[in-house]
Amino acid sequence: MNSLKILSGMALVAALAACGTVGPNYKVPEQAVIKRPQAAAPFLGTAEAAYKSAPLPDHWWRLYDDPVLDKLIQQAFAANTDLRVAAANLARTRAVLDQAEEERKPEVSISAAPGVGRSSGVPIGSPKALPDKFNYDVGVRVSYQTDMFGKIARAVEAANADTQAAQAGVDLVRVTVAADTARAYADACSAVRQMAVAQQAVDLQQKFVALTDERTRAGRGTAIDGARARSQLAQLQAALPPLAAQHRVAHYRLAALTGQTPQEMNMHLLQCQAAPRLTTQIPVGDGAALLRRRPDIRQAERTLAGATARIGVATADLYPSISLGASVGSTGLLDHFGAANATRWSLGPLISWTLPDSGSARSRIAQAEAGTDGALAKFDGTVLNALKEVESAMTVYARELDRNAALKTARDESALASEQSHRLYQYGRTDFLSVLDADRTLAATDAAWAASDATLATDQIALFLALGGGWQQQ
């Protein structure tokens, strides 16, 4: 009979051990968007002359060869508060991973309980009362979770995936910080260029006002001509304050990005006269490189891996939890501490199994499976959004290049027309309104061209942001 019990127990343990790690083993699902050949294909916009399929450099801002921009981005990487938050989140997930891995190690507990008392209920003072005695109880217990069904292994797998997702989150913030810093720098420099253009128009108009007043005094003009010239001058001067505000606000953005207060930001750091802009073809790589490079794609994929591992954590609750334990100790009178007959010890497994409450476990499994479905949908959406952002940014930049070229032509023609109108007006060959109209057209096209140059600079940075470079450490 005893032999039968032993054999039955051995069979039960063998059957449990055969179960292995429960839950699905993670791999990127075949139906995921990232598995489609079209996702890794060359970009549609690569056909544009503005681009080439060469790999994107890790630190794309160095293509501008601007030491000030390089310095600002390095300062942002060192002191940006969003990066500090992301780093703290990463440290927290690493601590969670360490905690999960600690579950694999044996647990040791030590106890010591000295005391004093009497083991009889005879009243105090009675001749038969036993004396008070000092006693003790000390022991050491070691327990080890066998993880026969892989609950701890899946928890560690999930925590590891969460840590990798948090690292991708840090990389994503670095990409954003680099682009935001470059954009703020470009905005500040563009404002300088636009203010110079606007001031030039103001200076020319002031000369024209003086010329008109001179002609009026000489009897070759009218008072209304002077009023129109001064009105045009006031309109041109009105363009300067918003540009000055844009320039100052860009400095404040740079201060915040680099971890400084507005008072600490060196307002004389930026000596640029125009926004940095590449005039050569931009290297964009292809879809396959983008999918490997973008941190948000990596983050979404690692989140999916963690959600898949949690299915195994929930599934393990359907099975027994088995721990191996050993304890040794001594209990007795304090004046006989360590006596051989006071020693105790035990060794054996502890099996716990919550039955018949399998409904709660299956509910947790269903929740984990739904979470995995949601994580897969988010992963697919992240991939699709990345491809959309790159193609859109390439299209916007290419079409702005076309617009910029047209505006430059318009500006050159307007400058020629304005110059000729002034000469004709000076010799009385044309009327004042023709000159005024030519000057208005020149001011408008000059400002539009400068604004387009600023847009091109920000469009380039938006493209680099969409391409996802810049997270790599120095």
Automatic annotation (TrEMBL):
Q: Per UniProt, what is one Pfam family of this protein?
A: OEP
**Signal peptide location in the record?**
1-17
Keywords from the named record: Lipoprotein, Membrane, Palmitate, Signal, Transmembrane, Transmembrane beta strand
List the membrane topology term(s). Lipid-anchor
Provide the primary localization: membrane
Q: Does the keyword Thylakoid apply?
A: no
Q: What is this protein called?
A: Efflux transporter outer membrane subunit
Q: Which organism is it from?
A: Duganella dendranthematis
Task: Name the lineage.
Answer: Bacteria, Pseudomonadati, Pseudomonadota, Betaproteobacteria, Burkholderiales
